[in-house]
Design goal:
The chain is α+β, with helices and mostly antiparallel strands. It has a three-stranded mixed beta sheet, covered by helices on one side. Helix 1 runs parallel beside helix 3.
């Protein structure tokens, strides 16, 4: 477990918070803990791979015919065998184990925050994802393609722990684009954000496409379970699989993380 990328992200996140509490006591900070799990390939470790395939339930819209049709193109390219219902169940059991593995590591991070009562009273936690996994919905796996807008691909977890707010299930549709203005409003006393009748404006420095902040109060640890492809880009920067990272914030021997 200690060798997983999820464990690495949690350890580095806790270390960052510890440094903030020691070096900048009482000051706000921003932490983006970017966990790769449960994205494929499903790298669940043995201690969490405890779900039984026979207990898994296929989506009601799954059928062998749909699965065969979806997988036909891949089989023609790579000679893959057709996925049976039992194959989908086995994969789903592994996926559930991977989710439990992630849950354990997020729990470690939350436990650390809760071990400091003042920190817990002043910390907003947001848990979300960029996409889901169809897990057999209409015979499909993963995301994107012709089924990009199916519920299994488009629906994501979006949970907020906000001190002073009563737990509730919010039915109003929300989107990733709501995150930045919401957090800017939350931190308006520190960010220079101007609050208007229609909601908060973007903080000073936001250009709409990229912001480079030279501070020591935010940290974005990112971990991947496969090889990182590095591309040099103009302006002295590096591109890590779609993440644009300022070169001066990186060490040549470090994993892709941003200290800004």
């Amino acid at each position: 477990m200690e060798l997983t990328s999820e464990h690495w992200v949690t350890d580095n996140s806790i270390e960052f918070i510890e440094n903030q509490l020691k070096q900048r006591p009482g000051q706000p900070f921003f932490l983006h803990a970017s966990y790769f799990a449960p994205h494929h390939p499903y790298g669940v470790v043995k201690e969490f791979n405890t779900y039984r395939p026979e207990d898994m339930v296929l989506p009601p819209n799954w059928s062998a015919g749909k699965a065969d049709l979806v997988g036909k193109a891949q089989r023609e390219k790579r000679n893959y065998p057709a996925f049976s219902g039992e194959d989908f169940k086995a994969l789903k059991a592994t996926y559930f184990g991977f989710i439990s593995q992630l849950d354990y590591e997020i729990g470690r991070l939350l436990d650390y925050i809760d071990s400091h009562p003042e920190l817990a009273r002043n910390t907003v936690v947001l848990f979300l994802s960029d996409h889901g996994d169809r897990m057999g919905e209409h015979g499909m796996l993963y995301k994107g393609g012709d089924g990009a807008m199916l519920d299994g691909s488009a629906a994501i977890p979006f949970m907020v722990r906000w001190p002073g707010q009563e737990p509730r299930h919010e039915k109003t549709p929300v989107s990733h684009i709501d995150i930045m203005p919401t957090f800017s409003y939350c931190c308006r006393n520190y960010s220079g954000c101007r609050v208007t009748r229609d909601g908060p404006e973007a903080p000073d420095g936001i250009k709409g496409y990229r912001v480079h902040v030279e501070r020591q109060n935010c940290f974005l640890p990112m971990a991947f379970t496969f090889a990182i492809q590095v591309h040099h880009a103009p302006g002295g920067s590096k591109k890590y699989l779609g993440y644009q990272v300022p070169f001066q914030a990186m060490g040549e021997d470090r994993s892709p993380s941003i200290g800004c």
